[in-house]
Amino acid sequence: MSTSFLNRNSSLHCSTNLSINGRHRQGPMTCNIIFRKHLQSDTSRSFRFFCCRRYDTFNTAAHHFSGSKQNLIVSCVRENAPKYFDFLVIGSGVAGLRYALEVSKYGSVAVITKAEPHESNTNYAQGGVSAVLCPSDSVESHMHDTMVAGAYLCDEETVRVVCTEGPDRIKELIAMGASFDHGEDGQLHLAREGGHSHHRIVHAADMTGREIERALLKAVDDDPNISIFEHHFAIDLLTSQDHEEIYCHGVDALNSETQKVSRFIGKATLLASGGAGHIYPLTTNPLVSTGDGIAMAHRAQAVISNMEFVQFHPTALADEGLPIKPTMKRTNAFLITEAVRGDGGILYNQSMQRFMPLYDERAELAPRDIVARSIDDQLKKRGEKYALLDISHKPRGQILAHFPNIALECLRFGLDITQAPIPVVPAAHYMCGGVLAGLHGETNIKGLYVAGEVACTGLHGANRLASNSLLEALVFARRAVQPSVKHMSLSPVLNDLNIWARPVFPESLKDCIVDDINSRTREVREELQSVMWEYVGIVRSTGRLKNAEQKVGELEEEWEKFLFRRGWKTTMINREACEMRNLFCCAKLVVSSALSRRESRGLHFTEDFPHVEESRRKPTIIFPASPGTHTWSTQQKLFFLYYIIGNDAKFDISI
Ligand SMILES: Cc1cc2nc3c(=O)[nH]c(=O)nc-3n(C[C@H](O)[C@H](O)[C@H](O)COP(=O)(O)OP(=O)(O)OC[C@H]3O[C@@H](n4cnc5c(N)ncnc54)[C@H](O)[C@@H]3O)c2cc1C
Q1: pLDDT band for position 59 (cuts 50, 70, 90)
Q2: Within this chain, do residues 186 and 319 fall inside the same structural domain, yes or no?
Q3: How many Å separate Cα 41 from the centre of its chain?
Q4: Which entry of 54, 368, 478, 601 is annotated as an active-site residue?
Q5: Looking at CB atoms within 10 Å, which of 264, 398, 419, 484 has the fewest?
Q6: Based on the structure, what is the number of domains in the chain?
Q7: Where would I find the Fumarate reductase/succinate dehydrogenase flavoprotein-like C-terminal domain in this sequence (predicted)?
Q8: Which ligand 1 atom minimizes the distance to the CA of 213?
């Protein structure tokens, strides 16, 4: 296992063995503790009223209910009082919801989500979910395709687990009401995408994620043990330390409708907060994907891995090439699924010259990283802003049946894809790295599990195979259940929840000052995104990465100084500032990881080390930051465990 001591704030303290799923990973951990004498008297364990909103289905407007369990909103008697649950789930995409539906069989569940419940990467997934469902296909073949795409950096055990358990996870989804396309023979229609050697993509036209999200939210709505807290922004995990072990006890979350902070206490917590696409200015990810989970976990001393592997999707819709330009800049780029290339779509430059065969013998069916780099190269060489993806040579009926959503979106802007090519450009799409997880989603923090895009399970290695991420989320959400239930049943009662300083909304600052802070924060966000695009994009070099490291560091320092000059305090939070510090954190993790990989592999291509080096076929590991160098952006909430459960209490949990 390679080690990288990555950003300026990350430094090695004492070395310890990390035991993740019995696979011991040698690594350093910090043992420093921060004490904060901030006691509040407003928490009362007898006060178990909570404020929640039940959600119907993703398509209907959320509304308040009263009365029955099914349609319940218990009024917010005291938002300040801690809310107790057996299980906390941060995120309501496929990973969070699937886990919630399993653990609810064992206890109460709070799903905390920062926007509307359906707003997630999951909801935008087009292509589908891969699984071995055809008799002529095999687990070995799926494994092989995954590892080839992952440039042999994948963890073979993880790949085997995911490919083996995948088919059952799909069958469960169908049993829960998800409806996928069927062929004329009545069997599931299995599509094929780049990098897959078989037809194995289960899909619902080109809106697969939306169908999965709909089915899961409906099931959650019918489950009396699950409460969804929408518009609740998870700020920081509440952790404690006992010798070398760190424990997670819950999370503070800002209700962005009331601007009050709620403290959620849970016996087991699943982090399922998705990716970090918004560290780049052009991304297919919705606005919620700001890397909050990765940053939160990093601050809480979780081990992070493989952050250099950012997948750029080669074909996002290039708005500037549309006959009618959208009046407003989109917050997330519209994806043109790779299935268009799988169905025979051909890439051209603006002179209608087909270019992919010049770069790879698989032409348009080459893996995403190669296609993205080829488009990037064409655009740079020709000084063009977008390339063209043409599917119009295929029968009109087939195009409209396979890509109804894409056809409709393009038509809104005057483009008939059955007649003319689609303007496309690469966009940040998927984070292969994340919080290091074992085979059951466990992390180095006891009681904290991860699943979905926030996790680095070892499945994707250096590059994600198309349609493997929904699958990974389903498999790991399920695998995290058993250890979570065990942890939940052994967790002691906490007797002091006030040791963690309460974050506060900056009510004491004048509105004009907060406006000023928010406005500067928006500018800084754009500046960070353009640094990342320019210096940490599809093609990298050591010089450009070092430049990025310096610029990001300076920008963060300047931004923090600006905040504090305006009267900001270390306990203050609002959504804009929290997202900004999380974006900074993720950007720095990407840059540092990229600098430490001195080879080109999968999604990480650097001009200075353009070849694969067998001796460097190891994941990048980022160990916790040193508390000694903490700024507001990197501070954490960590206490001695005995402060919370008492000196004699036992808290011996292993899976
Ligand atoms: C356009 C697009 C197309 C894709 N197509 C495919 C495909 O065809 N096949 C495939 O396998 N994969 C696809 N992917 C990737 C796949 O959709 C994601 O990897 C997967 O959905 C991730 O699921 P998740 O549950 O981990 O995270 P998400 O679905 O992103 O959910 C994260 C949740 O966490 C919440 N959250 C985030 N931060 C906070 C916070 N601070 N506090 C509270 N809540 C928070 C969000 O609001 C959201 O509810 C696609 C992705 C995109 C963007």
Answers
A1: very low
A2: no
A3: 35
A4: 368
A5: 419
A6: 2
A7: 525-611
A8: 29
